[in-house]
Amino acid sequence: MSQRAPGPEAPGADRLPGLAAPGGELDRLVGDGARTVGAGAVWAVGDAGGTLGGGAHGVLGQGPYARLRPGPDTLYDLASLTKVVALWPCAGVLWQSGRLPLDEPLGHWWPPAAGRPTGAVTARQLLAHTAGMLPYTRFEQLYGREYAAIRAGVLAAPLHRTPGTVVEYTDRAAVLLTHLVEDLGGAPLDELAARLAWVPLGMADTRYGPLDATLTARTAPTEYEEAVGAPLCGVVHDPSARLLGGVSGNAGAFSTARDLARFLTAVLAPPPGLRWGGAWIDESLREQTGGLLPARGLSWLYAPGTDPAEGTFVHYGFTGTGFWVSRRLGRWALLLTNKVHYDRDIERLTELRNAFRRAVFG
């Protein structure tokens, strides 16, 4: 087990409502941090019973967006949080139903991977980012713009590392898992995610884009796009997901703080009948990288700055999103920004994320 200097103790459950109160410590922390970061922010914390508190600060962006303020119903491009909110629960349903073996090389049982380099990797390695796939996408440069050609290219690409030897985060793992999950599930990922995760939890705002005009009106803009002469808004920021039609396991989902609170609450206290609850959450929220660093679970990362023994997990999105969960402490937290709308310098956002995590989880 890694050693690190003792950090602040996590606030007790009885202190969380006070921390999360309007104008309380967390509200001040995020408000001050949002001004430093230079982007608006929405935050919330809760436990197995639901949301304990939250708030919003700043404005949605520049130009016409400077007149708009974020809130719990503001839609954010989740970027890589899509891996957890969409792809992870679908994989869990398939695993719990016996259709997705985690430890059998793909080429032994999934025909599209047979005879391919990716046939040597397992679903567990894909979920833990130890599959050894190439660390970059470059899909258009390598495979063109056709959907089928990109999928074929990902399947046929040589491995970058021997599977199971290095933890190396890559969107290719999620793209390959999307292909696998859709094949086994018999439907596109957006349909599977809605049916298996979002509708059962009442996540009425969560969906893949492109969003319609009504939803776009309450969506945080992301980065300026030369081709359209404006910031992207309601269209996925991630270029790989855009090439794949906007629906992919690596990125593409939009959601609100209100919906994500429902999702994180369910991770702590799965409602009866949730098909990815129980054993899948148990399996996912434990160390899966065999001592390799950075330690990861399945889809989830142990929060940087914490010891894995503390059991605090996180996932971040490139656009400026992030959420945390700790079953040991029985609490969750989310912090949503659209930092990429302003620039790609994330140093101050990283500082805010870390300070927020320490305040909630210790």
Which percent range describes the beta-strand content? 5-15%
Largest sheet: 6 strands, antiparallel
Q: What's the Cα radius of gyration?
A: 20 Å
Helix proportion range: 25-40%
Which shape, going by the Cα principal axes?
globular
* Overall pLDDT: 96
Distance between the termini: 19 Å
Spans of at least 5 consecutive residues whose pLDDT stays below 50 are 1-6
Question: Secondary-structure element order, as H and E?
Answer: HHEEEHHHHHHHEHEEHEHHEEEEH
> Total number of β-strand segments?
11
Discrete helix count: 14
What strand order characterises the main sheet? 2-1-11-10-9-8
Question: Given the helix and strand composition, which structural class is it?
Answer: alpha+beta
Explained architecture:
This protein is an alpha+beta fold. The chain is built from 14 helices and eleven strands. The protein has helices at 16-19, 25-37, 82-96, 106-109, 123-128, 139-143, 147-156, 171-185, 189-198, 213-216, 239-243, 257-268, 279-284, 347-361; strands spanning 41-47, 50-57, 76-77, 207-208, 224-225, 230-231, 253-255, 301-302, 312-317, 321-326, 331-337. The strands form three sheets. A six-stranded antiparallel beta sheet has the order 2-1-11-10-9-8, with helices on both faces. The longest helix has 15 residues, at 82-96. The protein starts with 15 loop residues before the first helix and ends with a helix. Mean pLDDT is 96; it is low at 1-6.
